[in-house]
């Protein structure tokens, strides 16, 4: 870690808040960031109940590896919870350098079978949850005039999209659009944005195992008749596409590298997609068009973080 996190300090360790850090990408990334020397708050909900064992695991990991890994209660469905989590971080450390938007929820099944309320619930976790955390954290980052917002997206936003995952894909695409707009709006506060884009990892996370399903069952028989065992087929074929060394820890490694990169030099988008579903190619075009358009309308300065006079 070669640069500082804040003007006037020589401490290279960053204080990182990562949402959805009870398992999967979040837990792996929290541990990897802590091993890299950062102060990490692994945020999760129900820390005194359902996730109490994960809190204990994080505490044991921190003691065993002698790293600064802490947990904090944060339910992304609640603004009050997000506000309280950020307040806890600031009270204990006096600063927050990096926000990692990792919390997410996947559902599987025929799109028609989901009620509008069920689609809204997926959107609430994957999109509105990031907004709640931003509204809690950004006033501090803006006041400091420094920071990094890192979004954990999905290659499904622009790459291959197998059936039966539409609510999740739609929410991830919305989150990506929000991240792109935020990047320009935060640049003049010297707040950097990176979008890490994982592909389909069929093992090593709880995405598929803990994913939801439509509660209403009346339309399912018609789909079962034509698309029986579809999700099993998709999972097997995605697994077959991935190379043998496609370990889910690659996502955590990418996040650690981004956080450790000097401020102002971080990539806008990083793909971690062993199956290569095409997202990197499509995103390269979209990001180039974004750069060219903002330049054409005289807003090239919002493409990179910098300080401007108030």
Task: Provide a descriptive summary of the structure in words.
By secondary structure, the protein is of the alpha/beta class. The chain has nine helices and seven strands. Helix 4 packs parallel to helix 5 (166-187). The longest helix has 29 residues, at 116-144. The protein is globular and about 60 Å long.
Write the layout of secondary structure elements.
Blueprint: E1 15-18, H1 24-35, E2 39-44, H2 52-65, E3 69-73, H3 79-93, E4 98-101, H4 116-144, E5 147-152, H5 166-187, E6 191-198, H6 220-227, H7 230-241, H8 249-260, E7 269-272, H9 279-296
Parallel strand pairs: 1-2, 1-4, 2-3, 4-5, 5-6, 6-7
The radius of gyration over CA amounts to 20 Å
Overall pLDDT, averaged?
Answer: 90
Q: Which stretches are poorly predicted, pLDDT < 50 over at least 5 residues?
A: 1-5
Q: What is the N-to-C succession of helices and strands?
A: EHEHEHEHEHEHHHEH
End-to-end separation in angstroms reads 30 Å
Overall geometry comes to globular
In percent, how helical is the residue content? 40-55%
Number of distinct beta strands: 7
What class, by secondary structure content? alpha/beta
Strand line-up of the largest beta sheet: 3-2-1-4-5-6-7
Q: How many strands, which pairing sense, and closed or not: the largest β-sheet?
A: 7 strands, parallel
Number of helical segments with 4 or more residues? 9
Short description:
The protein is an alpha/beta fold. It is built from 9 helices and 7 strands, in the order βαβαβαβαβαβαααβα.
Which key phrases capture this entry?
single chain; 310 residues; alpha/beta; seven-stranded parallel sheet; 46% helix; disordered N terminus
């Amino acid at each position: 870690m070669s640069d500082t996190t804040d003007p006037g300090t020589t401490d290279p360790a960053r204080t990182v808040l990562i949402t959805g850090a009870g398992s999967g990408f979040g837990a792996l990334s929290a541990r990897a960031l802590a091993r890299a020397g950062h102060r990490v708050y692994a945020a999760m909900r129900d820390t005194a109940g359902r996730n109490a064992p994960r809190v204990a695991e994080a505490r044991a990991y921190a003691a065993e590896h002698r790293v600064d890994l802490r947990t904090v209660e944060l339910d992304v469905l609640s603004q009050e919870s997000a506000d309280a989590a950020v307040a806890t971080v600031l009270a204990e450390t006096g600063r927050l350098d990096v926000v990692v938007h990792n919390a997410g929820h996947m559902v599987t099944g025929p799109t028609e079978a989901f009620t509008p309320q069920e689609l809204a619930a997926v959107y609430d976790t994957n999109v509105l949850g990031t907004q709640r955390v931003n509204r809690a954290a950004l006033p501090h980052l803006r006041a400091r005039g420094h920071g990094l917002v890192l979004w954990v997206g999905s290659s499904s936003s622009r790459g291959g999209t197998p059936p039966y995952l539409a609510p999740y894909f739609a929410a991830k695409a919305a989150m990506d659009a929000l991240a792109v707009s935020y990047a320009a709006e935060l640049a003049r506060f010297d707040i950097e944005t990176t979008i890490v884009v994982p592909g389909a990892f069929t093992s090593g996370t709880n995405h598929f195992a803990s994913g939801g399903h439509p509660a209403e069952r009346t339309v399912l028989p018609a789909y079962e008749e034509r698309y029986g065992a579809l999700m099993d087929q998709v999972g097997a074929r995605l697994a077959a596409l991935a190379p043998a060394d496609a370990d889910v820890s690659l996502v955590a490694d990418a996040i650690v590298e981004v956080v450790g990169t000097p401020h102002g030099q971080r990539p806008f988008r990083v793909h971690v997609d062993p199956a290569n579903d095409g997202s990197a190619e499509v995103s390269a075009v979209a990001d180039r068009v974004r750069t060219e358009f903002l330049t054409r309308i005289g807003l090239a300065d919002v493409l990179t973080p910098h300080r401007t006079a108030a």
